Write a sequence for this structure.
């Protein structure tokens, strides 16, 4: 096949010159400090030259060379593509296209890795993958660092938003300790009526008693509800990377306060349990404790309760297996939340100084358990989001979800899904955090 504009030169002659792309790959394999900027420009020029050759050969084959493209060729069917690649001209053009695009992708990986301070060893792994397996595989690995950082920032944004929501919820929402006390004691005209009207509108989502029961339980408010405002306000500070790096004393003090607040809230949770203020005990009097604990899977909690009754040789859950299983789940989640705070504090103390390898390992573990603690705590805020979304879905589809069974099932399902969702996202954040730390250490070593 003659090359357009290059008389006397065939595709066979040019095929050998395509190996010049290896010079470009060799330049990209050099460390950034050894690679002048003009060398990167030469790689770009080489890729552009191959792209021009690809365009010229393809246009010449399609429009000027008769018989170069077999009959029935095209991209509309598999047979058409097979016929297309029976052409020597098309195969040559495709090979030039592959070389040009891969070299351009390799240049992007090298330049972007230099900007993001990705260790050069990682780049040396990405470049051969791009050359032999194609750009998607190499670029995927090359962008891993940026994706990890972006995902961590997303998790931090979600956690901060949920914390802000809980501060507003506990401080101002009807049924919270502060608002309910004010509304119960005030006699100013209009305020109490507005408050009661708001409660009536909320009764379509949860029972009236569920948002007012803490009026007469001041100790629960002092130990559990109000401290949650402090916990939600301090969590974004504790997770902030800048504070952790530049204000380590503040980071440690906030951590100690969070552990103390967590202990207080756990005592308040025990008091809620002792006084029978759980929603399935106190707020749905027309239903049994173990009745209506799920809308999505009504069979799950009774089944789990019967299994637990069998596994404990009949010592537990004999009267109401479903209620026993759900209370066990709630209790395990609360204990897990407190334990994660204690373990995070333990590893923070062991890793103080962060100089030796052992201390750095303790700091890694401290961050992991701190993320688990935050994730477990935010499951309550996530429950509120799921409740609102569920009732919004019911209204959108004109479904009746205002009866006691639906309200209780949605409330319980939202709690279960909130716990599972937050714990799962917490483990993903831990994995990303470890990846980021490892890549940062490699970058500093280089």
């Amino acid at each position: 096949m003659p090359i357009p504009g290059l008389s006397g030169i065939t595709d066979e002659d040019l095929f050998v010159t395509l190996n010049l792309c290896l010079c470009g790959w060799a330049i990209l394999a050099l460390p950034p400090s050894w690679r002048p900027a003009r060398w990167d420009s030469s790689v770009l020029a080489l890729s552009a030259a191959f792209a021009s050759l690809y365009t010229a050969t393809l246009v010449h084959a399609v429009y000027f060379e008769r018989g170069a493209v077999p009959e029935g060729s095209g991209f509309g069917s598999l047979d058409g593509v097979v016929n297309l690649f029976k052409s020597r001209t098309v195969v040559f053009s495709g090979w030039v296209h592959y070389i040009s695009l891969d070299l351009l992708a390799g240049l992007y990986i090298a330049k972007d890795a230099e900007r993001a301070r990705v260790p050069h060893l990682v780049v040396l792994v990405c470049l051969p993958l791009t050359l032999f397996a194609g750009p998607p595989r190499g670029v995927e690995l090359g962008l891993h660092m940026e994706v990890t950082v972006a995902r961590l920032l997303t998790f931090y944004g979600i956690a901060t938003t949920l914390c802000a929501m809980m501060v507003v919820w506990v401080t101002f929402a009807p049924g919270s300790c502060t608002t309910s006390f004010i509304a119960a004691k005030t006699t100013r005209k209009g305020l109490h009526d507005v408050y009661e009207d708001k409660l009536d509108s909320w009764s379509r989502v949860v029972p009236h008693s569920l948002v007012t029961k803490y009026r007469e339980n001041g100790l629960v408010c002092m130990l559990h509800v109000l401290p949650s405002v402090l916990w939600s306000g301090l969590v974004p500070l504790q997770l902030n990377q800048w504070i952790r790096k530049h204000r380590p004393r503040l980071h440690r003090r906030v951590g100690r306060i969070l552990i103390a607040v967590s202990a207080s809230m756990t005592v308040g949770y025990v008091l809620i349990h002792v006084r029978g203020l759980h929603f399935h005990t106190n707020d749905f009097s027309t239903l049994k404790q173990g009745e209506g604990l799920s809308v999505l899977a009504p069979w799950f909690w009774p089944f789990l309760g019967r299994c637990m009754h069998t596994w404990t040789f009949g010592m537990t859950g004999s009267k109401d297996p479903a209620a026993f299983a759900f209370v066990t789940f709630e209790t395990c989640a609360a204990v897990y939340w407190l334990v994660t705070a204690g373990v995070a504090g333990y590893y923070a103390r062991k890793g103080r100084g962060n100089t030796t390898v052992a201390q750095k390992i303790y700091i890694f573990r401290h961050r992991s358990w701190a993320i688990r603690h935050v994730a477990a705590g935010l499951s309550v805020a996530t429950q509120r989001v799921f409740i609102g979304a569920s009732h919004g879905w019911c209204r959108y589809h004109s479904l009746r979800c205002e009866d006691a069974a639906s309200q209780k099932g949605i409330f319980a399902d939202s709690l279960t899904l909130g716990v599972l969702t937050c714990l799962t996202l917490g483990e993903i954040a831990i994995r990303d955090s470890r990846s980021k730390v490892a890549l940062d250490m490699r970058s500093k070593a280089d």
